[in-house]
């Protein structure tokens, strides 16, 4: 594991920040539903995914109606992956927002994130394309990154057929999906291809460093994402000890110069808070056009609480305003 150069002893007596009341209701509701099932790391991967889908399903329902939703296969070097293309009733931007779901590289899908993607589509007036990359352990690092790269390349060649301008693309994701989105941007930068107008990074995992103050404060499990689950995710996704130090996993050590503009949605009560604050500073030092906002009283995955939590709607609206400014 990576340890901060200025490693400090664990904090004592430090109270977590207070949760937004609606976000707290989301956390408690999710925990109550999850408690009906075995812990996901104690059952098979297939069972764990099914449990995750059932627990997430109520939060993916409702929300904006779409003019059209298509599920399509896309060829990649590792075989086909599925994409979901949401076209909103009202179009205000001609491009598309490519979105990559989180879930620790192991769980979740376009289904768990369906409402989240439809919220972006309706609020931005833009086509949203979700990528169902192959999850770990069936696909270990770096296969999901390569699948996302290949899918983006395919989308650039098929934008007209899908009803969007492939010259006006955004990319984003949450948690592990944000890692995949930033890695995709780094690949195209290294290839000398200007593909994206911007990227949206929602409470993203930018390193494998678990020795962080925010992990100590918020990683016990009562704020959603736990330290235990993070270790389980890494155990399923990474092949070798060296992978923990690979710049594609330790993005805080990556060369960030020349990447597209970025907007970071940062959750206050999140084990990944420190990673995100540090990434903003690293991007600024690299000359990246970066904007960010810390959403007070929120937890990892809080955007999924949009049906009950106004702060989630605020984050969606802040993000689509930022995207409109970069279009």
UniProtKB/TrEMBL annotation:
Entry's family note: Belongs to the 'GDXG' lipolytic enzyme family.
Organism from which the protein derives: Pseudorhodoferax aquiterrae
SUPFAM superfamilies, A to Z: alpha/beta-Hydrolases (SSF53474)
InterPro entries, sorted: AB_hydrolase_3 (IPR013094), AB_hydrolase_fold (IPR029058), Lipase_GDXG_HIS_AS (IPR002168)
Top-level taxon: Bacteria
One Pfam family named in its UniProt record: Abhydrolase_3
Protein name, entry field: Acetylesterase
Keyword Cell membrane: no
Keyword Plastid: no
Domain Alpha/beta hydrolase fold-3: 98-303
This protein's UniProt keywords: Hydrolase
């Amino acid at each position: 594991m990576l340890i901060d150069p200025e490693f400090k002893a664990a904090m004592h007596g430090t109270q977590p920040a207070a949760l937004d009341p609606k976000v707290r209701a989301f956390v408690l509701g999710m925990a109550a539903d999850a408690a009906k099932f075995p812990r996901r790391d104690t059952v098979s991967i297939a069972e764990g995914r099914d449990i995750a889908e059932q627990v997430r399903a109520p939060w993916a329902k409702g929300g904006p109606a779409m003019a059209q939703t298509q599920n399509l296969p896309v060829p990649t070097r590792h075989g086909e992956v599925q994409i979901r293309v949401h076209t909103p009733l009202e179009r205000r931007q001609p491009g598309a927002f490519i979105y990559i779901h989180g879930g620790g590289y192991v769980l979740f899908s376009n289904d768990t994130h369906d409402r989240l993607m439809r919220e972006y589509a309706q609020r931005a007036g833009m086509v949203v394309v979700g990528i169902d990359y192959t999850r770990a352990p069936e696909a270990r690092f770096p296969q999901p990154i390569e699948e996302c790269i290949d899918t983006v390349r395919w989308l650039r060649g098929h934008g007209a057929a899908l009803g969007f301008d492939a010259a006006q693309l955004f990319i984003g994701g949450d948690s592990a999906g944000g890692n995949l989105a930033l890695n995709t941007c780094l690949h195209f930068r290294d290839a000398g291809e200007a593909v994206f107008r911007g990227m949206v990074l929602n409470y993203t995992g930018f390193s494998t460093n678990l020795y962080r103050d925010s992990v100590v404060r918020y990683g016990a499990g009562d704020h959603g994402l736990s330290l235990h689950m993070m270790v389980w995710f890494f155990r399923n996704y990474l092949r070798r000890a060296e992978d923990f130090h690979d710049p594609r996993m330790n993005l805080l050590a990556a060369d960030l110069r020349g990447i597209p503009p970025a907007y970071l949605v940062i959750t206050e009560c999140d084990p990944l808070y420190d990673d995100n604050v540090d990434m903003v500073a690293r991007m600024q030092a690299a000359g990246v056009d970066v904007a960010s906002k810390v959403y007070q009283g929120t937890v990892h995955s809080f955007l999924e609480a949009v049906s009950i939590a106004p702060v989630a709607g605020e984050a969606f609206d802040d993000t689509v305003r930022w995207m409109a400014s970069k279009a």
